[in-house]
């Protein structure tokens, strides 16, 4: 069983032009990256990244582009010095673009702020001076626990400006999770807010910080942004209001140049063990790659585009493609605080219409939610300003791709399906919108200057049309440099399976006969049924291609006969009727038809919700626990832990 989502695509082949959707002619003619981009990178990989680095302002040029003498510890642009914040802000103001809008910020309750590059410079300088007054020095770690408000960006850039290392913790994390991250990073200062707006109500953040700080020592100051006006407790001598400290600071601050390898930030991500990994990114290489990929993958035209990454700044997508990539390219961005259904399900489309958004970047899970809400919602708005769409975070099933293409992109916008990770810092596998013929469901090709391969368990590169593991065979500028405080874990997790020169991504992948790479989900989510490898994603993709299904999650549950059995959890579309056993039978048949009898689920359960992390990833691990009648594992990272009780109650007593 080696077929993958291509089956699904074949099932939808009537909607696909031969060989894929070609780039729109006008876009291709004026695209930032053309076929020659691949050629240049292939001819001189490191030289290509040096050219990309020259798009930035360096206070001191590098002596050596790449030092890979001690793998897997890479150094990029050795000897070079730059200031990341000055590259994102000051240089645009100096070049006469101070009045250009950097962010159209939209609060969930409907309040708005427009921030130009000149204003951004003032705010970043004030925040930098405030952090200095709190005693923050170069190399110190600053924890940021804020909602989607401009102060989050001011604080990140202020840290970068003074050489402090920011550690943003997504506002949805619990006090425990915050405390463990503060302890691990040894942060001295926390920046938070009285609250933020989510789903129509102010949420508390400061109380979480207060609780977290009972579980960790070492934090000496808490800076509190005034956002909601909720009553919060302020601890004398430790806590200070943003309005008291930052507002009185000078807008003058001279940025100092830091080494290219100076730490920029830590972002925690979960691994296979309970302890989250602090992924460390540094300055010159990181900014080079996020800046270049943002410019090339999204074909960003700073004078005319209105760019929107609809993700939370608390994740790597936000760091690279709300903050550092767009600002380094002098983009005008939209930043939205709230959820897509507040106050109504058309909120995003209203924003696109009002601000004339031209480029939209979001996740498949959100796209499938919009599918569930129905075509009518986006159809009620003028989305004609859009010219390019992006997808990130998980494989996008062809059904969702085509829905996005038609209902949001009006059939005219290319979709770039970008594969990358917290660890990779920037895009790694993606189509280029002015070059690639788009194949729905596949991330297609390594970005220019990136070396990705599909290998077998021994690390041998596989022939086209076979399924294996994704590896990266050359270092890249925005790669993680280590796991904070744990070099051994860094080596073990990523650089041991196939030796110290090969990065093991943890994803299954297939290269098809045309050389397109299809990501098949984490390898721990790959099922083995009767000796056949089947990706959970593959079965999910088949299920959601059925007209009644909005979303599906599939797990491999231990089975005495077949090794693993496929258990599927599905959410029906709003207009579909749950016809009980009859529908389940129909869905099983549909999967047999789409993929083959081997992929037919042992069990299909219709549920109302799926357990998701706050970043929108389905927690298959918990579903596997349910499917195998086990005690539930750790549910602390779920958005809503009651979801699991609902699902468990649906389950017949044995699997
Ligand atoms: C994992 C990384 C990249 C920022 C957001 C997630 C999956 C990500 C894709 C894609 C298929 C994808 C992979 C990867 N993934 N993008 N376009 N197609 N899978 O970052 O939380 O570090 O997760 O997300 O499984 O390993 P992350």
Task: Give an overview in words.
- By secondary structure, this protein is α/β, with parallel strands linked by helices.
- 31% of the residues lie in helices and 23% in strands.
- Strands 12-11-8-6-7-14-15-23 form an eight-stranded mixed β-sheet, with helices on both faces. The protein has a seven-stranded mixed β-sheet with strand order 5-4-17-16-18-19-20, sandwiched between helices.
- The longest helix is centred in the first third of the chain and has 17 residues, at 117-133.
- The two termini are 25 Å apart.
- Mean pLDDT is 91; it is low at 1-10.
- Bound molecules: 5'-O-[(S)-butoxy(hydroxy)phosphoryl]adenosine (WT7).
Low-pLDDT runs: 1-10
Note the total helix count. Answer: 22
Give the % helix: 25-40%
- CATH architecture title of the largest domain: 3-Layer(aba) Sandwich
Q: How many separate domains make up the residues?
A: 2
Which hetero ligands occur in this complex?
A: 5'-O-[(S)-butoxy(hydroxy)phosphoryl]adenosine
Give the CATH topology of the largest domain: Rossmann fold
Enzyme class: ligase
Family: Belongs to the ATP-dependent AMP-binding enzyme family.
GO biological process, one term: acetyl-CoA biosynthetic process from acetate
Protein name: Acetyl-coenzyme A synthetase
